[in-house]
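Example for tutorial group B:
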C-alpha cells in the first residue's frame, strides 16, 4: 500500500480548524473571557419560519406509511430542482432540470467535481481565495497557478493570455475580499476560458448578498458561459443552512460529456440529500421563504455596515461588506495577518480570519464576518475602536 503523498504538501490543518484550535486553547486558559467570534463565516440567526414549517411537515410525512421516503434520486427531488430552475429564471437564466444537481453544499461539490478532471490539468486560482480550491487540487497532485488579486486591481484579477490553464476558479462575490465581478469582467473570463479550452468552476455561494442588480448572480448570465462553466451554490449563507446542509451545482448539458459524467459520479458515490432537508430547501424559494431570508440577509448587512463604519473611524483601509458578508481590511500598524489575529484574540477577545490563510497575497490583511449577532458585532467594534482609534 502506498499512501497519497500529496497530503504531505498541504498545510498541517485546514485554515478554519487551525483557528478553532487556537481559539479553544485560549478559551480554556481564559474561562472568563467573553470571546466574540467573527472568524469562520458561520451564520447565527435561526432558520426562518417557512423552512421550519416545511421541516415539521416533512418529518410528519416520514412518520406515515403512505408518505414515507427511502432512497431518493441522487441528483435531488424534482420539486427542489424545479424551485432552483425558477430561481435562475428570475434572473434570466434558463436551465433544464437535468442540469441541476442537489448536494449537501458547495464545499463538497467543489472538491468532488475534481473526479471528472485529469490529474495533468493545470489549475488557475485567484490569490487570495477560499482555501478549498487549492487544497483539493494539491490532494490530487495538480499544478496550481495563481492569479494575483491585490489592492491595485480591486482584488478582481483579470485573465492573462500568457497564462495557460485548464481549470479556472472564480468566486464572486469573493470569499474573502467581498469583491464582485461585473458582467464585462466575467465576459472576459468566459472568452479566455473558451480560447484556452478550459473550464470555469464558478462559486456563487454569496450571490444573495449582491446589492447592485446590475452585477451578475450567476455566470450563466454571461453569453457563452454554458459552454465553459460549472456553477456551485449553497443555501448555507443564503438561508442559514451551514448546519442543515444543502446546495446545488449546475452542469450544463452543452458541456458535453461532463453532465453525464457528473450524474455517473453522483449516482455512484452519493446517496442524495435527505428528503426532509430538500423540503426545507424548497421552502427557501417560496414567496414567504424569500421574504424571510431577505430579512436575515439585511440583518447581516447591517452588521457589515457597523464593522465598516468602525474601520472608517479608525482610518483602517478596508473593502467588502457591500456584496458579501465579509469585510477585508489591512492589518493596523503593519502587523502580519497572524500577528493581528493573536493581538485581537489576546487583547480584545475578538476572533477573525488571518488574510494569509487565503493565500500569499492575503498577508498583512484580515477578514471579519458580519454573521455574528448584532449585539456581539457592536460590542466587538466598541473594543476595536477603543484599541485602534488614533
Ligand atoms: C468561510 O468562513 O470562509 C466559510 O464559512 C467556509 C465555508 O463556507 O466552508
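The residue assignment follows.
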Amino acid at each position: 500500500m502506498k499512501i497519497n503523498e500529496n497530503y504531505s504538501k498541504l498545510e498541517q490543518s485546514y485554515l478554519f480548524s487551525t483557528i478553532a484550535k487556537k481559539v479553544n486553547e485560549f478559551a480554556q486558559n481564559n474561562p472568563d473571557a467573553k470571546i466574540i467570534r467573527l472568524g469562520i463565516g458561520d451564520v447565527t440567526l435561526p432558520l426562518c419560519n417557512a423552512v421550519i414549517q416545511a421541516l415539521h411537515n416533512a418529518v410528519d410525512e416520514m412518520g406515515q406509511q403512505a408518505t414515507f421516503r427511502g432512497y431518493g434520486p441522487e441528483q435531488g427531488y424534482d420539486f427542489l430542482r424545479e424551485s432552483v430552475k425558477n430561481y435562475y429564471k428570475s434572473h434570466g437564466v434558463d436551465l433544464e432540470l437535468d442540469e441541476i444537481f442537489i448536494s449537501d453544499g458547495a464545499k463538497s461539490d467543489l472538491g468532488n467535481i475534481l473526479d471528472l478532471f485529469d490529474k495533468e490539468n493545470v489549475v488557475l486560482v485567484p490569490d487570495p481565495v477560499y482555501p478549498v480550491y487549492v487544497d483539493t487540487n494539491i490532494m490530487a497532485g495538480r499544478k496550481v497557478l495563481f492569479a494575483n488579486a491585490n489592492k491595485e486591481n480591486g482584488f478582481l484579477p483579470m485573465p492573462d493570455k500568457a497564462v495557460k490553464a485548464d481549470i479556472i476558479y472564480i468566486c464572486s462575490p469573493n470569499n474573502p475580499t467581498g469583491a464582485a465581478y461585473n458582467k464585462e469582467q466575467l465576459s472576459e473570463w468566459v472568452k479566455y476560458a473558451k480560447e484556452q479550452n478550459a473550464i470555469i468552476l464558478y462559486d456563487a455561494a454569496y450571490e444573495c448578498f449582491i446589492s447592485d442588480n446590475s452585477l451578475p448572480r450567476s455566470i450563466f448570465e454571461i453569453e457563452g458561459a454554458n459552454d465553459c462553466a460549472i456553477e456551485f451554490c449553497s443555501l448555507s449563507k443564503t438561508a442559514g443552512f451551514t448546519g442543515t446542509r444543502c446546495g446545488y451545482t449546475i452542469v450544463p448539458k452543452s458541456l458535453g460529456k461532463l453532465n453525464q459524467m457528473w450524474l455517473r459520479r453522483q449516482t455512484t458515490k452519493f446517496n442524495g440529500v435527505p428528503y426532509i432537508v430538500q423540503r426545507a430547501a424548497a421552502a427557501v424559494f417560496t414567496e414567504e421563504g424569500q421574504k424571510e431570508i431577505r430579512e436575515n440577509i439585511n440583518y447581516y448587512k447591517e452588521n457589515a455596515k457597523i464593522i465598516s463604519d468602525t474601520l472608517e473611524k479608525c482610518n483602517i483601509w478596508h473593502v467588502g461588506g457591500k456584496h458579501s458578508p465579509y469585510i477585508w481590511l489591512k492589518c493596523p500598524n503593519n502587523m502580519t495577518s497572524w500577528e493581528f489575529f493573536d493581538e485581537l484574540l489576546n487583547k480584545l477577545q475578538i476572533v477573525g480570519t488571518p488574510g494569509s490563510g487565503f493565500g500569499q497575497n492575503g498577508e498583512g490583511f484580515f477578514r471579519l464576518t458580519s454573521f455574528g449577532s448584532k449585539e456581539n458585532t457592536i460590542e466587538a467594534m466598541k473594543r476595536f475602536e477603543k484599541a485602534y482609534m488614533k
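Residues 40-42, 107, 130, 175, 236 surround D-malate (CB under 6 Å). Compare this with the pattern of hydrophobic and polar residues in the output above.
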